[in-house]
């Protein structure tokens, strides 16, 4: 059974750093891309980027390039999303999901992690 | 402003049919498959339709998808109160990567 289990909710202050995780089980972690998706309060879904664990090849959305870093640790089947200096506008639910890729294109995202709520407030 | 355009809300009575539209362009829907996601409050999205009109196992055939040109449509027949949720379309854009619609809130009256 494919599962993506994310780390717990975080409350941080502006300017602080943060790294959230997505632990995968039920399939060969290195063989499938992993994506991160943001959902701001009351808003829609926004793709942030995608990483291929086998070689850490990473693609970022133009909107998030330079704002976050996506990485993996293959030894523990875990993907990460990190910020070096959080802003209040980073307050959102963050989901990891497995994109089904074909010729470099994501055809769907399935399954999804349960989400990690990040709150940034002074 | 989302790259894909969906109506903010739709509503219909139990047992009726509803459609949700998703409008894009030649750089996204016009050139790639469309998927649809259902999201209940406080939960993660779940794929309902992929590759325009395919249903994952476990998704009832009350849900259907279609695509024509640069638009796609999700159809739900035999509406149930349990279908009340937010629905999102998604696809790939040649410049932006994965893109989603702004979401449509379905109310079953």
Summarize the structure.
Helices cover about 0% and strands about 55% of the residues of chain A. Chain A has about 120 residues and is an all-beta fold. In chain A, a hairpin with a 4-residue loop joins strand 7 and strand 8.
The helix content of chain B is under 10%
Per DSSP, the total helix count of chain A is 0
Strand content of chain A: over 45%
Distance between the termini of chain A: 40 Å
What are the salient characteristics of this protein?
heterodimer; A: 122 residues; mainly beta; 7-stranded mixed beta sheet; 4-stranded antiparallel beta sheet; globular; B: 109 residues; 6-stranded mixed beta sheet
Describe the structure.
- The complex is a heterodimer of chains A (122) and B (109).
- The N and C termini of chain A lie far apart (40 Å).
- In chain A, a hairpin with a 4-residue loop joins strand 7 (69-73) and strand 8.
- The radius of gyration of chain A is 14 Å and the shape is globular.
- Chain A has strands at residues 3-6, 10-12, 18-25, 34-39, 45-52, 57-60, 69-73, 78-83, 92-102, 105-112, 116-120.
- Chain A contains no helices and eleven strands.
- In chain A, the strands form two sheets. In chain A, strands 2, 4, 5, 6, 9, 10 and 11 form a seven-stranded mixed sheet that branches. A four-stranded antiparallel sheet of chain A has the order 1-3-8-7, with no helix packed on it.
- Chain A is mostly beta strands and 122 residues long.
- By secondary structure, chain B is mostly beta strands.
- Helices cover 0% and strands 45% of the residues of chain B.
- Chain B has no helices and nine strands.
- Chain B has strands at 9-12, 18-23, 35-39, 46-49, 63-68, 71-76, 85-93, 97-100, 104-108.
- In chain B, the strands form two sheets. In chain B, strands 1, 3, 4, 7, 8 and 9 form a six-stranded mixed sheet that branches.
- In chain B, a hairpin with a 3-residue loop joins strand 7 and strand 8 (97-100).
- Chain B is globular and about 40 Å long.
- The mean pLDDT of chain B is 96.
- Chain A binds chain B through residues 35, 43-47, 49-50, 59, 61-62, 95, 97, 99-100, 105-115, and chain B through 2, 32-33, 35, 37, 43-47, 50-51, 56, 88, 90, 92, 95-103.
